[in-house]
Prior knowledge:
Elements (H helix, E strand, L loop, with lengths): L2 E6 L9 E3 L5 E3 L9 H16 L12 E6 L7 H6 L4 E4 L2 H7 L5 H15 L7 E4 L8 H14 L8
Parallel strand pairs: 1-4, 5-6
Antiparallel strand pairs: 2-3
Amino acid sequence: GFRVAIVSQDHYTSSAGSYWLPDGGREETYDMPCSVIWKDFAAGIGDAATKMAEGEISSEESGRPGVVLVSGSLLYWMAQLNQAMQIRLFLRSSREEVFRQRQDLPESFLEHVVWPCHLEFGQPQAPVQEIVVSNGRSDSWPTLSQVLGIIRAHLRPNGSHP
């Protein structure tokens, strides 16, 4: 097992503006780099890494390797974050799968905001280990299993890095 801290980009965002829907409603957008409060996001990642290194996270499990998982649709947009990561995983999803996973949003918003922003800002800017997410799959275990395998291969049993 691992000691894990998770830092989500979603906790460090503010709306980048509104998209007017064809029905007259509007939807706030968080899918552009200007919606992320990068300084705070980077500080949150740094705090989690420091706490992990100092044993403040899951200290009862000392001896197990510590991992800080960072998630977000714009995660790879900032070069400095890319450089700081030891392992970069990218879950590659088709347009159809992205739409299925975000079906709570209006289709026109997905079509004209979310998908174009994903293509422009959400792609890796440095080498990654890519995992393809199968269309329509509700069971996340195969994806999680791949992620854990990559992390295990990277970490030595004593928690040091190769």
